[in-house]
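Hi all, long-time lurker, first post. I run a small reading group and we've been trying to get comfortable going from sequence to structure in the token notation. Rather than ask abstract questions, I figured I'd post a concrete chain and ask someone more experienced to write out its structure so we can walk through it together at our next meeting. Sequence below, copied exactly:
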Amino acid sequence: MLTPDETPGARSAVPGDRQVALRFVRLTRDFWRGETARCAWLWTLLLAAGVILTVFANVTVNRWNGWFFDALERKDGHSALVAMAVFPVIVLVVAGLGVLILKSRETFQVHWRRWLTAKLVDGWVGDRRFFRLGLSGKEPANPEYRIADDVRWATEPIVDFAMGLLSSVITIVIFIEILWEIGGSLRLSWGGTEMTIPAYLVLAAILYAVIVTLLVTAVGRRLAGLIAKRTESEAGLKQIEDLVNVLVDKKIGAIFVESSVSDRNVKALIEGAAAKGHEVVIGGELFSDAMGAPGTYEGTYIGMIDHNATIITRALGGEAPEKGLNDKLGS
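-- Answer (accepted) --
Happy to help. Here is the structure in token form:
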């Protein structure tokens, strides 16, 4: 993603995750400044407040469960009736907080995406950058649609992640406070020596979380790469299957390899077509990203085109001179 003060090719190397994050922060931080600051901070604080209050509401629901079922266990009818009377109020509060979060999140995302899209479009159109990008050949197809879609993918996951992170932090703080309250201290005796471990449940929970996090990180670091490779492999197999179906349905009898590309996938196509009872042969090798050897007829643009046209025509059953249009192939 190019910021308005950058030009294509300014950074030839692919930026790392940290660089991408810093560039994104520099690109978007002005949303909370200037003319949009009031709107941005209003919906940001409302969303944060909704998340925090929702955590406390969930804790309240858990406490209500304890209150109600303890009353039933004691056969305390008065306390049970009071708890039942309070329950609809808790439901309304939780529902209201859900509406507040949904409204705040969607409104915040709309304002942020609108502001960021306008900034990127201005950076693309301003100073005729779109014209220079078109001349450079580095501009992707349909950039205006890519801008809108990329902005959505860049902002929505961040908002969801921030909400989840805030909720998790508040939950951890409350969970520690509850464990500290109900856990007390653990006294151990060993060889006449007594040891007291304060808030042992809190320490046990922290130790468990650290161990599980380290294990998940150790396993997941390699798993991410394996999943990516598997996804790429599945995508490649699907493409090969689709091409095999085209060859069989259209009764195409020849396919071609390129001089700069491995012929492994071509062989997979031939075997896939044969499995469906359709014979496909390799019609020959074409020049695409590279021409022939320097100093040869095929090493010129005319010779490259003549070679490709001759190979394709003869392999598909057409008639063409064996040495090409100019009778120079192979010379």
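A couple of things your group might point at:
The helical segments are 17-28, 37-74, 77-125, 129-136, 143-183, 200-249, 264-275, 301-315.
Residues 312 and 318 are 8 Å apart (CA to CA).
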